[in-house]
Amino acid sequence: MPGFNLSLGFTIFYLTLIVLIPLSALFLKTFTMTWEAFWSAVTSDRVMASYRLTFGASLIGAAINAVFGFIVAWVLVRYRFPGKRFIDALVDLPFALPTAVAGITLTALYSSNGWIGKFVEGTLGIKVAFTPLGVMLALTFIGLPFVVRTVQPVLEDAERELEEAAASLGASSWTTFRRVIFPTVLPSLLTGFALAFARATGEYGSVIFIAGNMPMVSEITPLFIVTKLEQYDYAGATAIAVVMLVVSFLMLLGINLLQAWARGKGGKK
């Protein structure tokens, strides 16, 4: 790479062009509104319902992925079994699959007459498609690779000698996992959680088909922003987008601080 000054200048220019200018335009368009109009646009009952669904489903989906994504990464790293390479490649499917295709597929599977939805609704009485549960399912689907691919390299680089030393000192398997393994992967697990959450809050294509898009019930905030744009209410759309941006930034900042704390705590140990 070239010298520091040139590299830093190019970095700042690139980030300004790709990130800062679009975000600045978002805020500048919102500033054309009065405070009363802004507050009315971002706190209406319909918008608040979309916030609760979007952030709530995103948090739940990211939490589910943090648990099961860790298990998937653990199995892929620590065990050998037939079809391992296929399953490892299958993890990246949500990355490669167009989001609209993912939404149509999930809807076909979990609708009332779908292969899985027919059983779940008929046997358990749980309706998945066209409900908030379907939104959470779609957000969980698209977020899984972020956790697996973040935790997997850390598990691969983990020092097995520490586990062997703990076992030789009489530590049980659970104690070894809790005191040796988990603190090592916790920062990467939090990073994967943050990435899955950030991806889910802005998801659109895979959700609109399975959500049903019922106002006050299963309407996500990105869809509501698109609806505002279709109505040529650009200021209202940017106002809602600014709220999404600020809330997402604050939540990601909190997660990053927690990650730094976990990394520092692990380093001290």
Task: List its traits.
single chain, 269 residues, mainly alpha, 13 helices
Written description of the protein model:
The chain has helices at 4-30, 35-42, 45-78, 84-90, 93-96, 99-110, 115-124, 132-157, 160-168, 173-201, 205-211, 221-230, 234-268. It is mainly α. Helix 8 (132-157) runs antiparallel to helix 11 (205-211) and helix 9 (160-168) runs antiparallel to helix 10 (173-201). It starts with a helix and ends with a helix.
Largest sheet: none
- In helices, the fraction of residues equals over 70%
Which ranges are low-confidence, i.e. pLDDT below 50, for 5 or more consecutive residues? Answer: none
The rounded distance between the terminal residues' Cα atoms is 36 Å
What is the structure about, briefly put?
This protein has 269 residues and is mainly alpha-helical.
Produce the secondary structure layout.
Layout: H1 4-30, H2 35-42, H3 45-78, H4 84-90, H5 93-96, H6 99-110, H7 115-124, H8 132-157, H9 160-168, H10 173-201, H11 205-211, H12 221-230, H13 234-268
